[in-house]
Amino acid sequence: LIAILRTLHERKLSLAEISYKNESRNLKQIFLSNRLLFFFIISIISFIYEWFPLYIMPILAYFSWMCWINPSNNFLAQSTAVRGLAIGGGGLTLDWYTLTKYLGSPLIVPGSALMNIAFGFVLIMWIIVPIVYGTNVRSFTTLPIGGVILTEFTASSLVTAFTLFASITAVFVQTLLFHGIDIWRQFRT
Questions:
Q1: Domain count within the chain
Q2: What is the pLDDT of residues 82-95, one digit of tens each?
Q3: What pTM does this model have?
Q4: Predicted confidence (pLDDT) per residue in 10-62, tens digit
Q5: 84 and 37 co-located in one domain
Q6: Do residues 182 and 140 share a domain?
Q7: Are residues 115 and 134 in the same domain?
Q8: Degrees (nearest 5) of the Cα angle 33, 34, 36?
Q9: 40: domain range?
Q10: What is the CA radius of gyration of the chain?
């Protein structure tokens, strides 16, 4: 915010503006010398870039190009389609917001974290899940991809699920009880 306010309201001329001051003015010089005009043009381009794919033509946000290879193949559609009841591993996007919307803000997350997330996504969604689904490990193909199956849980599977959630909570409680004093000392120093 401070950088944009200084850019738009600062009175000092930059080196580019000083060198272009005495020459004939063409389009490039007008953009370099008039910061507000440049800001408005970039804002309009950014607005169109975000508005057009999201509201006018949402097909530009996702391309399930692998489904175009063989439209009648259900396994290919379930493993590569982006929308609907699919895994979502084969989509191509032209929208940066679509790539980073689950992160909250792409400006806060470091590049190394994005690379770790991308590597994990490729490993799990493009390699492991299609292999498990294609080889039908433990009758995996009977489960609906992306569907809600809470009504089909048995008592034993619910006990297992709740035990897993309780174990995650137990890890945090155990860490606080046994190492809480050391953690607190480290935060204070």
A1: 3
A2: 655 556 556 666 66
A3: 0.39
A4: 665 555 555 555 555 566 666 556 777 777 888 888 888 777 766 777 766 66
A5: no
A6: no
A7: yes
A8: 150
A9: 2-56
A10: 26
